[in-house]
Design goal:
CATH architecture of one domain: 2-Layer Sandwich
Helix content: 55-70%
Largest sheet: 3 strands, mixed
Number of strands: 3
Strand order of the largest sheet: 1-2-3
Order of helices and strands: HHEEHE
Radius of gyration: 38 Å
Distance between the termini: 125 Å
CATH class of one domain: Alpha Beta
Oligomer: single chain
CATH topology of one domain: GMP Synthetase, Chain A, domain 3
Number of helices: 3
């Protein structure tokens, strides 16, 4: 008994036909676009460069915000130190708040003269643009 031969669907002709069909299908995918591969690469590079520029701008903006916060903290510390050096002012009881170089003083002051000195101390600190003196004279 001789084994019967079943034709293999994956013969050279069948494989070539399938590869050709695949190539046609892939070619049809790009039919709607008249762009060359080089143009597509250029567009991708341009998009990547734009994303990089956007990220750089965001980083610089964040750095400026952090820098301003550090400056405000430095101003607050310097004003508080100056107030602590004055024997009539209580740096512990006086709240110093700084935002954008604008200092606000709140809390008690033992006299009108001490209140005025507190304002002068705050104004003398580098980076202070204005002082809102809300100290209350307590006698």
């Amino acid at each position: 008994m001789t084994p019967t031969h079943t034709p293999n669907p994956w013969t050279r002709h069948g494989l070539a036909l399938m590869l050709a069909a695949g190539a046609l299908a892939l070619g049809a995918c790009g039919k709607g676009s008249n762009e060359t591969a080089g143009q597509k690469v250029d567009q991708s590079v341009a998009k990547t460069e734009q994303a990089g520029a956007d990220a750089k701008a965001k980083t610089e903006s964040a750095a400026a915000t952090v820098g301003a916060a550090v400056d405000d903290a430095s101003i607050t510390a310097a004003v508080s130190t100056g107030l602590a050096k004055d024997p009539d002012l209580s740096a512990i009881k006086i709240d110093v708040d700084t935002k954008g170089g604008q200092v606000t003083l709140t809390g008690p002051a033992p006299s009108a003269a001490a209140k005025a000195r507190a304002e002068e101390i705050a104004k003398s600190v580098k980076g202070v643009s204005t002082v809102d003196n809300k100290l209350e004279v307590k006698m």
